[in-house]
Amino acid sequence: MTAKTMEELVALCKRRGFIFQSNDIYGGLQGLYDYGPLGVELKNNLKKSWWNSMVYERDDIEGLDASILTNPMVLKQSGHEDTFSDPMVDCRDCNSRWRADHLTEGQCLSCKSKNLTEPRPFNLMFKTSVGPVDDGSSFAYLRPETAQQIFINFKNVLDSTPHHLPFGIAQIGKAFRNEITPRNFIFRVREFEQMELEFFVEEGSDEKWHKIWTDLRMTWWLEQGISEENLELLTVPPNDLAHYSKATIDIMYKFPHGLEELEGIANRTDFDLGSHTKGQESFDIQAKVSKNNHSNSKLAVQDINTKKWKIPYVIEPSAGVDRGVLALLNEAYKIETLDNGKERTVLSFKPHLAPIKAAVIPLKRNNEQLVAAATSLKSSLQKKQLGRIIVENSGNIGKSYRRHDEIGTPLCITIDFDSLENNTATIRDRDTMEQKRVLIEEIPQYVADHINNN
Ligand code: GAP
Asked: What's the chain's Rg over C-alpha atoms?
């Protein structure tokens, strides 16, 4: 049986230490969540997998880690100051506020009143003051997408690396949006992480690359263990496109609350590099920077033959880390009925994503020899650099197996008294529940193969 209501996932996440309501002891703060001991591992593993596929496995993409605080000029030029808003309505009866497009029945979701104000735009960007004087004259935005810092670093990266078009810049990091109605757990929050690639291509090849990246991104999600029947591609209708987009394809996932966007792949054309080039030229003129500097500051590439400057087009696959984590949890969550009629809860993560890769369990709690053997095996396993390996000195094997099924640990390794005699230990597989005895010296390679090849 598969049971996946959002409530079940939220309860499991809290109980086992994946995700907690943020600022909880002071009543929480809406739209913010904290990742606990297992959540941080799962999230880091997802980001690592993305970084591997984008940066390490390719030679045409470089990484970046840029600042979160953003000069308002950047977001003026990008169009966010003017257009990055959602339509907001107030309920005149209970004073609650809603995103107009979420009120599909045209009534307040709280008191069901239809006595609503006309929708008006609400800008989603957070502001903060910069420097010691808080008089509003010097402020910065918390970036609403990681993309803009990639665009404004385009020239820095191009000039410091050997790339020509097509090439890309990848970044993972926090983004902030003052969502009118954050909801559905970590699906729509006010502070979240994005994994974004800006892939710069020649104008005219953009549609071809848009298709290539859509296919690559679908394949990647499948490799993370998301099943095909829960994914769909949606071509965003022209009237719903973001201000910078010529075409966007969304990868939609069947979340517990419905089919919603997991990642968007946009053809941003030359919009962003073009408007930052214009922005920079007018900044240079105001700052009286020599005209000769203009070509240096153009966010453009120079044609080797014609020497003409051309602004590249951009294809942008932009995925939400938190939505990725929610999809992984939803996908992995299973309640199975065993042959003996009992139930077990399993998180069947792909091994490379599992928060804990293996648990080494001494059969008897605090037994010096067993704990020493378990600790020694843990350090050999640790040398394989697979991720988190733990020694669990619980003395209750059945309970440990149940816990590790529920948090998705692919392998449990039990050290018993025979282990001290014949140097073997029992390895139990999370998915099949099969157990086999393996020579202790062969276990690190066994575990590495299991984690890397499944
Ligand atoms: N740079 C393009 C961009 O930011 P977007 O569709 O607004 O495009 C990209 O966001 C991805 O970021 C989404 O597909 C989603 O996964 C994630 N995302 C956006 N807003 C979010 C929010 N409030 N909470 C969690 N994830 C969010």
From this structure: 26
